[in-house]
Design brief:
- The complex is a heterodimer of chains A (about 500) and B (about 150).
- Chain A has 17 helices and twelve strands.
- Chain A is mostly helical and about 500 residues long.
- Among the domains of chain A are: about 120-200, Herpes Virus-1 (2-Layer Sandwich), CATH 3.30.40; about 270-500, Up-down Bundle (Four Helix Bundle (Hemerythrin (Met), subunit A)), CATH 1.20.120.
- A three-stranded antiparallel sheet of chain A has the order 1-6-5. Chain A has a three-stranded antiparallel sheet with strand order 2-3-4. Chain A has a two-stranded antiparallel sheet with strand order 7-8.
- Chain A is elongated, with a radius of gyration of 29 Å.
- The two termini of chain A are about 30 Å apart.
- Mean pLDDT of chain A is about 80; it is low at about 1-45.
- Chain B is of the alpha+beta class.
- Chain B has helices at about 5-15, 105-115, 125-135, 135-150, and strands spanning about 20-25, 35-40, 50-55, 70, 85-90.
- Chain B has a five-stranded antiparallel sheet.
- In chain B, strand 1 and strand 2 (about 35-40) form a beta hairpin.
- The radius of gyration of chain B is 15 Å and the shape is globular.
- The N and C termini of chain B lie far apart (about 35 Å).
- The chains are: A mainly alpha (about 500), B alpha+beta (about 150).
- Bound molecules: zinc ion (4 copies).
- One zinc ion binds near residues 137, 138 and 159 of chain A.
- Chain B: This is E2 ubiquitin-conjugating enzyme.
Amino acid sequence: MDSDDEINSVQSSEDDFMDDEDSLGEDFDAVEEPDDFGFSQDKDIKPRKQAYEVDFKVWGPGQIQDQQDKQVEEVSAVIGQPTESTAILLRHARWNKERLIESYMDKRDEVLESSGLSEDKEGSASITKADDFMCDICCEDGKDLDTFAMKCGHRFCVNCYRTYLASKIRDEGEAARIKCPGEGCERIVDSKSLKLLVTEDLKDRYHELLTRTYVDDMNNLKWCPAPDCTYAVECGVKQKDLTKIVPTVTCSCGHHFCFGCSLNDHQPAPCMLVKKWMKKCEDDSETANWISANTKECPKCHSTIEKNGGCNHMTCRKCRHEFCWMCMGVWSEHGTSWYNCNRYEEKSGSDARDAQAKSRQSLERYLHYYNRYANHEQSAKLDKDIYLKTEKKMTQLQSSSNMSWIEVQFLQEASQALQQCRQTLKWTYAFAYYLARNNLTEIFEDNQKDLEMAVENLSEMFEKSTDQLAGLKVEMLDKTSYCKRRRIILLNDTAENLKSGMILIIPNS
Amino acid sequence: MANRKRIVKELSDVTRSPPPGTRVQLLDESDVHIWEVLMDGPPESVYVGGHFKIKVTLPTDYPFKPPLLSFTTKIYHPNVSNDDKGSMCLGMLRSDEWKPANRISAAIEMARNLLIAPNADDAVEVSIADQFKNDRAEFEKIAKDWTKRYAGKA
Ligand SMILES: [Zn+2]
Ligand SMILES: [Zn+2]
Ligand SMILES: [Zn+2]
Ligand SMILES: [Zn+2]
C-alpha cells in the first residue's frame, strides 16, 4: 500500500515534501545499526555534505544476506513459524513485514495457503505418476511419466516442469515469482515446489536470484547498475521526492548513478525530465541527427572541418578562422562578456504568428539545446580519447626522462574532472530545455556558462603537445580545481532552487 | 528434437480447425519451425478486404519460449512494427508472459483480435497509436489505403 501511494503521488505538494524530508532522515537512521557493519566511522571522514548530495550507504553481498536473515528471524519470532517458512512468507509479501504480520494474525490459513505453505497434504507438492495423462507442453503421455502439479491442478510432466523452471531461472532471472506453466494460471510456484524440482546446477543461481528479489522489493535499496557489480545502495529518497531531488549515489565500485532511476548520474536534471528528454531525443532523432555529426563546414571558407578533440574552440586549417563548434560563432567573442553560446534567444513573438513559423521556432529551440547536449556527450568521448593518447605518450616520456608516475597523475585527474563536468553540462542543457523563464534561469545560465568556459579552457590544454604538457602541470591543476568548483556551485544552486520549488518547469513542453 | 511431437500436434490441430478467417501451412514442408498464416482482414475491422501473410517462427526451445510473429504483408497498425520485420510482440507473445501451455492458435487469434481492436496503450508504433487515439478518421483512412495497396491480392 505504501509503495503504491508513493508512486501515485510523484507530483507532491510543497508541504508533502517538507514532511517527508523529516521522515527521510528518520528512515535512514532507523536502518543504521550502530557498530554492526562498521559504517559509522565513514560519516566522520566524509566532508560536509553539499546541497546537491544525498545520504546513502553501500552494502556488500554478505551484508545484504545478513540484513535479510535478520528480518526473517525477527518476523519468525513474532509469528512463530520456522525461519524457512518465514522466508517464503516474507518473499511472498514482498518483504513488507508489517503487512505480513498483520495479515498473518488476521487470516493465518489464507496467508499460508497463498504462499504455498498450507499444511493439508492434499494435492500439495509431490512428484507422482498419473493415469490417463498427456502433458500439455510436450504432448507425451503414458502411465510411467513422472508428473507434477501444484494446488491449482495444472499437471505437467516433470521434465517439462523442470525445463520451464530452468528457463525462467537461467534466462529470465526469475525466482521468487515464477508462475505456474498452465495457460493463464497466476499461481506462484512456491519455494517448496522449487526445492523439489530445481536441479542441483541451478540451485546457486536460484539463491542468488532470491537475494536479488530482496533488494528489488525494498524501496530503499537499489542494485548498482554497473556491469558485474554486486553491491546495493541504500538511500531514503522516495519516489515522490524525485521532482525536487536528484539523488546521485556513488557505489563502492566507483560508479555514479541516480538512485531514482538507476541511470548514469544526470545531475542537475530531475529524473522525470531526463526520461522526457530521452524520449524526445529518440522521437526526434532523425531531425537532430545531422547536428551531432562529426564534421561541419568552416563558417568562413566552407572547407570541411573534422573535430577530433573534445574542445569546442575550432581553428579552420585552411583559413585559420577561429570559431565555436557549438554555435558556429566567432571564438573571440566567447572569452568576453559577449558569450552567449549557451543561452537560447527567444525570437520576438511577432515573428511566430503562423503555425509553421511557430513549429519552426520550437524546433529551433529544441535543436539549440539538443545540439549542446549531444555535443558535450560527444566531447566527453573525444576528451577521453585524447587523454588516453596523451597518457600513452606520457608513459613513454616518463620512461625516457626522469619524471615519476606521480608527476603525470595530474593529467588523469584533469581528464576525470572533464568527464564529470561534461556529464553535468550535458544534462544542464536537457534541463534548460524544460525551464520556464524567470530570474533564476538567468542565474542558472550564468552558472552553466561559467562551468562551460572553465571546461573548454581545460579541454583545450589537452591539445597541447606532450613536451609542453609537462610544464603546464600547475596551470592544469589550477584549471582542474576551478572546473570542479564551478560544477559544485552550479549543482548546489540548482539543487537548492529545485528543492524550494523556485525552479519552474514548462508544462507539457 | 524433444518439442517435435508438440509442434506436429499443434500443426495438425490448427490445420484441421484453424481460427476463423485464417489458414495455416508450413512455409517449407521440411521445416516445422516456420509457419505461414494467411489471415483475411476481419469484416468488423478497417482491414476488411485485405489478405495478410504472417510468418510464425518457433524458436528452438519452443514451447518454453514464445513464437515470433511477423507480418510479411505491410500493414498500418500500432502494434505491428513498421519496418521490414513487421513484428508483433505484446501480451502472451512476450517471453515473460508466455506460458509453455499456450498454443500458437491462441497467438494467431490474438493477432486477429488486434486487427479488430488495436491496443494503442501497448504500441510499437507510437505515432500510429497517437493517431489511432486522437485522429481516428485519419488512421482509418491510411489503414484502409495500405490494405488496398499492399494486401489486395490473396
Ligand atoms: Zn511434458
Ligand atoms: Zn496452475
Ligand atoms: Zn557498483
Ligand atoms: Zn534519475
